[in-house]
Amino acid sequence: MIYFLKPSIALLKIMILIKLGGSIITNKEKPLTPNRNSIKKIAASLKNVNEPLVIVHGGGSFGHYWSVKYDMHTKPQRHEAKGVSYVKNSMVELNSIILESFLESGLKPYCLPPSDFMMGDKPLIKKIKEIPKIAKTGLTPISYGDVMWFGKNKFYILSGDRIMGILSKILHPRLAIFVTNVDGVYSDMKSKRLLSEITKEKPVTSEVSMDVTGGMSRKIKEAFNISKNGTNVFFVNGNAPKRITNAINGKSFEGTIFR
To answer: What CA–CA distance (Å, rounded) separates 78 from 152?
Structure first.
């Protein structure tokens, strides 16, 4: 379904927050395998955006692979040092691949590890408020989900979806966009009936909640919280990068929007 957007007249919010899901930037069927072609196409599309961008990416077949292998979760716990090292190093590797691809596409990526703006599991508000200032210089801050030191010999997984929620709450971006490998949120996974709009009046049903994967369920939860704070949230298919820029530019849009 094509959803037509009304272009905004007064853009008081001048930053766009984009999450590149692990499903679109990696091959989740093959451990430690980036989807370089997809990353390149998305980067080339974002090159045409004339507003400050802040990018967050997931772990896909890199960090997610190792976190599952070593049974690491979002709850702070004591974990084997080897597992922590594997997750951390794999996310640095994936981030380097994305940075390189963005550079080759003419963008100016700025690596922004989550440890730059998080202390334990608490956001450093002053640090986070500096991020749009970096983006306004022409650089594109790029952060990512990661394994984080919590204290007391404990670590936890900070997902890219959670980072989206944290940054949105503090920065109030003009738009938040989740880029995945599917068209949006489906009301039923078998029929693939796409929900074009989700609001308080048109909420996600319990049927949808049961159908989606754990990863999509987490995204939906963050999307609801972000939209409650006044930011429209889009779910788009990264295999068609034009849909990302269409959402940004207020043109015809195919996907799901949370209002």
So the answer is: 9
